[in-house]
Write a structure and sequence with these properties.
By secondary structure, this protein is α/β, with parallel strands linked by helices. The protein has two domains: about 1-240 and about 475-490, Rossmann fold (3-Layer(aba) Sandwich); about 240-470, Rossmann fold (3-Layer(aba) Sandwich), CATH 3.40.50.2000. It contains 19 helices and 17 strands. The strands form three sheets. The chain has a nine-stranded mixed sheet, with helices on both faces. A six-stranded parallel sheet has the order 14-13-12-15-16-17, sandwiched between helices. It has a two-stranded antiparallel sheet with strand order 8-9. α3 packs across α5 and α12 (about 330-335) packs across α17 (about 440-455). The longest helix has 17 residues, at about 440-455. It is globular.
């Protein structure tokens, strides 16, 4: 089976969010099942190949916006998965990612790749990811190319609406676009809507989210379209590369510790470590999660200027400052109403500047209880995972979420709103805590409940941590689900 995985970011070459991690991990798991899968990304100026050597394949031209555009095709081997990665370079449209031209051009180039056999690789399936690849299914059909398509919706809120002029640029007539049925008043092309309309199969990143997007509350205006595709929409829970998580833990955490009672020097991990890292791995085996968390908490408290006290509960938020999704509004309100003297909170992330200022105020007036860092800092993030007792995920909606999975790998219990992938990955009272109502009161009550268990019911807390550590979030199960759907696509069932 041959699959081309089309995506706009890929860790470690270029990573903006969780999609970059997924693009690095899912194809690797699918390859382990025997699929000939290859990845294609734009060759942005920001792409960093590091030690990976690129190979020039060919140069070709295609028409875009009534002009012939030169495209250079390169190939590189992914440093972890060892899979082939195709890089598409164009100085006008793929130097920096600018919507809509970058992605419309990217989609047209991919269709041209398979139409003209530039890759010497004809996929049976093109696996499209999110809004950036939304026009590929439509372009394949209009060019009468019989390749099956799967579209994975990572976040329905990002749809990519733009002027109808984009259709002329890619050589399509206006009546070929679904705008004739939808969004007529706005006269806009919706990239994700086109992908949903024309893809053979649609997936979302969790089973619960697949159901939620059929409702008015979570459908973002496309619920009627999605309900019309019922039976062709499937939810597959994202995973994480647990081997990578463990290796990063060894490299970035001040006091590494045993992340699982079953974890014992897997050969695949040892092969990716240098002698110093292997020494660190040996040392980590000597620290239980209890001892490791204590040492890392004391280290991080000192580093961030918090009160140095292992007996105070440490709670953290790691994520984007996106008030319409990530729940920072109810988090901020809770911090203003709770007695901060009995807690320590660490906030790591960036985004909405107004909300950054509001959290900074709390940091300023409660410097020993609140520490805010407004940036994306991978080193600090892993140190927070290792030190914290709880991770906060008050998201209003969450298609899947990776933070709660990584946190549980570290023995850090999530406190989360009951929505989307958080429902599918957290079992309330077993490996974390869920609250029903999206409100600061519900969040505060659940925080107080969780901390009370941490303080007074040590055995229950320890059992929950052990449950979290033993939860399997690897890509193996998810990859088998995708394989089943690929087979369904090819068979036409």
């Amino acid at each position: 089976m041959k699959v081309l995985f089309a995506v706009w970011e890929l860790d470690p070459f270029i990573k903006v969010g969780g999609l970059g991690e997924i693009a690095a991990s899912l194809p690797r798991a699918l390859s382990n099942l025997g699929i000939d899968i290859r990845i294609v990304i734009p060759f942005y100026r920001a792409v960093r190949l590091r030690r990976s050597r690129k190979k020039f394949i060919k140069q070709f031209t295609l028409k875009y916006a009534d002009k012939l555009e030169k495209v250079e095709l390169f190939q590189v081997t992914h440093p972890v998965s060892k899979l082939p990665v195709y890089l598409l370079k164009n100085s006008h449209y793929m130097d920096t990612p600018i919507f809509p031209d970058t992605f419309a051009f990217f989609d047209k180039v991919i269709v041209d790749l398979v139409a003209e056999n530039h890759l010497s690789f004809i996929p049976e399936i093109i696996h499209c990811n999110d809004v950036h690849t939304g026009l590929i299914p439509l372009l394949l059909k209009e060019n009468k190319i019989s390749i099956k398509t799967m579209l994975t919706i990572h976040n329905l809120a990002h749809q990519g609406r733009t002027s109808l002029d984009i259709l002329a640029k890619i050589g399509l007539e206006k009546n070929k676009c679904n705008v004739t049925q939808w969004e007529i008043e706005s006269k806009k092309v919706n990239f994700l809507l086109e992908g949903i309309t024309h893809a053979d199969i649609i997936t979302t990143v969790s089973p619960t989210y697949a159901k939620e997007i059929m409702t008015e509350e979570y459908g973002a205006g496309l619920e009627e379209v999605l309900r019309g595709k019922e039976g062709r929409i499937f939810g597959v829970l994202n995973g994480i590369d647990d081997q990578r998580t463990r290796s990063v833990h060894l490299m970035k955490v001040k006091h590494p510790y045993l992340l699982s009672s079953t974890f014992s020097k897997p050969q695949s991990l040892l092969g990716g470590l240098n002698p110093q890292q292997k020494k660190v791995l040996d040392l980590s085996q000597k620290n239980s999660w209890e001892e490791g968390k204590k040492l890392n908490k004391l280290y991080l408290q000192k580093k961030l200027g918090l009160r140095i006290d292992e007996s105070i509960p440490l709670l953290a938020f790691i994520g984007r400052f996106a008030p319409k999704q990530k729940g920072i509004d109810i988090l901020h309100k809770m911090l203003r109403t709770i007695d901060l003297r009995g807690y320590e909170f660490i906030i790591l992330g960036k985004g909405d500047l107004e909300w950054e200022e509001r959290f900074l105020w709390l940091d300023t007036f409660y410097p020993k209880n609140v520490a805010c860092t407004f940036e994306f800092n991978d080193l600090l993030a892993h140190q927070i995972y290792a030190a914290s007792d709880f991770i906060l995920m008050p998201s209003k909606f969450e298609p899947c979420g990776l933070v709660q999975m990584i946190a549980m790998c570290y023995g850090t219990l999530p406190i989360a709103h009951r929505t989307g992938g958080l429902i599918d990955s957290i079992k309330n009272g077993h490996n974390g805590f869920l609250f029903d109502n999206y409100s600061s009161e519900a969040l505060r009550e659940t925080v107080e409940k969780a901390v009370s268990i941490w303080r007074h019911k040590k055995k229950q807390y320890q059992e929950m941590v052990e449950n979290a550590l033993s939860t399997d979030f690897s890509w193996d199960k998810s990859a088998k689900e995708y394989l089943r759907l690929y087979e369904k696509l090819i068979s036409g069932s």
